[in-house]
Amino acid sequence: MGKGFKSLVTRCIYVGKMDDNMKKLKIATEELKDLGNSVMKRVKICEEQQQMKRLDKVQTWLRQADIVIKEAEEYFLMSSSSSHGLISSSHKMEKKICKKLKEVQEIKSKGMFEIVAESIGGGIGGGGGGSVVKDSDEQTVGLEAVSGLVWRCLTMENTGIIGLYGVEGVGKTTVLTQVNNRLLQQKGNGFDFVLWVFVSKNLNLEKIQDTIREKIGFLDRTWTSKTEEEKASKIFEILSKRRFALFLDDVWEKVDLVKAGVPPPDAQNRSKIVFTTCSEEVCKEMSAQTKIKVEKLAWERAWDLFKKNVGEDTVKNHPDIAKVAQEVAARCDGLPLALVTIGRAMASKKTPQEWRDALYILSTSPPNFSVLKLLDRN
Fold it and tell me: Which Pfam families match (predicted)?
């Protein structure tokens, strides 16, 4: 009677421990599932939206997490179908559950990744964090030399910050786009990250930080609760260990990149910063080692670009159109953006009167979006 009672008590203790650990295993497994889903979501964003490649260690962790989750779920099935049986079998099962619980907890502890992806090519090329910016080939006429100059600057050791300046519509963004896309499309370009940030007139440092952190694959849930200084520290921590090319489009005033967390380019990190601005003064304020002025197109180039977008058939549709078309093109003042957009707007105008109306509109207002609406209406 004594032995039987003692056996019963012992079995109850084992079963109690097993049930307690089984509950802990279920909770830990659910937490691991949630963490795995979060990591996979971040990976998908990097792969599908930013053309990045998941890190090998992240892929290994996801595979290990999947295996241990399936093994834990098998234990749950065994537990639900078991009546706990003999003391020896209960004790063995309890030990297995403890061991599996430790495995789940260990894998969960290793899944807190700051970065989940890198540039295609193992972090030495392909432009991690970058995305190809939509470009129009028609706008590149006359800008090839400038693009080539910027490209050469990316290979120069003593040039870390490059400023492109010129009047609005002259093609600065087109040049920046060309260089960004060329860098991303070239395998083994030497950069871990190729980052594109649109700055705009209303400077917002926190918005710049948010754009950078998305492109470098840091998607921590606590990001929104961090201060500007904490965000800067985290960005600096990541970028200071990598070589990056940062493209800033439409800069109107000095951007304090150090305050944003961007390490200054130097001979050690060999990183590059290229920006566009309308002001040469901003180039000085941004400490650009190389300043490149983007000039307006010469008349021959401007006329060729305009005709290409209007279409030869339209220009030759009536003898009077060709002459007026030249005057309309001249009103675009050698600005590629105006030549392309107005040229396209005039492609459907087949009568001399429509062209004379367009010339009148351009004579009274500089080419802008309001003018384009008028041209489309006429």
Answer: NB-ARC
